[in-house]
Every structure is written in C-alpha cells, then in structure tokens.
Amino acid sequence: MSVTAVKSTVLDVDWSTQTVLPIEFRGREIQLEARAYQGCDPTYQALVLINRPKPGEDVKIPVVRVHSGCVTGDIFHSLRCDCYQQLQAALETIVDTPNGVLIYLPYHEGRGIGLVNKIRAYALQDKGLDTVDANVEIGEPIDAREYDLTAAILFDLGFNEIRLLTNNPAKVEALRQEGITVAEQIPVVTEPSIYNQRYLETKRVRMAHKL
Ligand SMILES: [Zn+2]
Question: Which of 38, 90, 92, 152 supports an S-S bond with 65, CB 3.0-4.6 Å?
C-alpha cells in the first residue's frame, strides 16, 4: 500500500493531538511527549509516547515499540502472557533512548480479536488447546492485527526508518509492507513463568517468534 493510500483510508480526519505526559518509571519521573491518534474507524486509535532528545543529545534512528494493548497483562500483570514484561522492557529502552517511541494500540487486544474473544480463547486453553488452536476453535484469526495506522503515525512523525523492539518477525514484515524501513529488529527479552511457558512455546514454534 502506498503512503497516499494509507493516509486516504486511515487518516483523513482531524485525528491527532498532543501534550506532555510525566510518567513514573521504576522510581524516576520522566517527561514524555504524548500524542493521541484516531482514524475514520473508531477502532483506529493509538497513544504514542515519545522520548524527545534533549539539547546536545545524539539522535540515531528512532527505537520503536509497537505494543498491542492487553488489559489482563498491561494493567493487571497477568502471568498468562508476557505483555506486561515486554512493555516494561520496551519502556526501559525507550526512556533511555533519544527518539524512543512507544505506539500503544488498545484495539489490538488479544492479537486483534478483542477482549471477550480473548477470554473465550483462554477458557479453551484451560481445556488443553494452545493459543493458535483456541483461536481457530472460536472461528477467529490467529492474528487479526493490522499495521496501516501504525505506519501512518510513523510517517506523520517523520520516522520512516526505525529500529523495532519486537520478537515477532510478522510485525517487522507487516511494517515493511506498509513502506516503513525497519533497519534493525531488537529482541525484547523476558523471563518465562510457569503460567506462560506454553504460550511462549506456541509463539516460538507456531508463530516463528525469536524467543
Ligand atoms: Zn497479554
């Protein structure tokens, strides 16, 4: 899809606003530029946090985390997935990197199938299915996430070339398809728990994640 096509289908409205957001991160107060984006479809929403370079700081290619929202993981620190640990690990890099960027996509919940379907899939996993087979069983795609909004945001920020914090090669490929140059894939290292071992194993074996 060309840049023009992305902009015309995703972002043809007055769709962004910004402020400064001070956050507490591991005992430090950090000032981040915060932007909210919305496209024509209300599910096309994103919160973007940017660690802008301070005067005199060396600016390299932006380091970007494109994080799929996960209510159970990000907010309640669920141990069934590694979303919270990945978010924390990504933030650690972002707050120490000039032009570190977090793009947070709330509607990517459950790899894009939504909260209710995610919990439905969890119930099937309780009966022995893995994450891939559970999604198939409830008639949902294994991964329903789209990255056209993310690409449009990166173009808007002037970040056409990025270093991407991810273990997921499909995410790298999807952004490249949208016209973003992914100069480097930086792995996000997390510690497995007894609850998410199978989830992580399925990501590695069936979804080619580099874990
Ligand atoms: Zn999660």
Answer: 90
Find all residues with CB under 8 Å of 93, minimum gap 6, and list them: 63, 65, 100, 165, 186
Architecture of domain 3-207: 3-Layer(aba) Sandwich (3.40)
Protein residues with C-beta less than 5 angstroms from the ion ligand 1: 70, 73, 81, 83
Supply 79's token pair: 């141990």
Q: Which residues are catalytic?
A: 143, 145
> Comparing C-alpha atoms, which of 105, 99, 80 is closest to residue 196?
80
Q: Tell me how far the alpha carbon of residue 82 lies from the centroid of ligand 1, in angstroms.
A: 6
Cα–Cα dist 51/35, whole Å:
12
Between the CA of 37 and the centroid of ligand 1 the distance, in Å, is: 22
Residue 9 binned pLDDT confidence (cut-offs 50, 70, 90): low
- Show me where the domains of the chain are located: 3-207
Relative to beta strand 100-105, strand 45-51 is: antiparallel
Tell me, in angstroms, the distance from the centre of ligand 1 to residue 84's CA. 7
Condensed to tens digits (0 to 9), the pLDDT of residues 125-182 reads 999 998 889 989 999 988 888 999 999 999 999 999 999 999 999 999 999 999 999 9
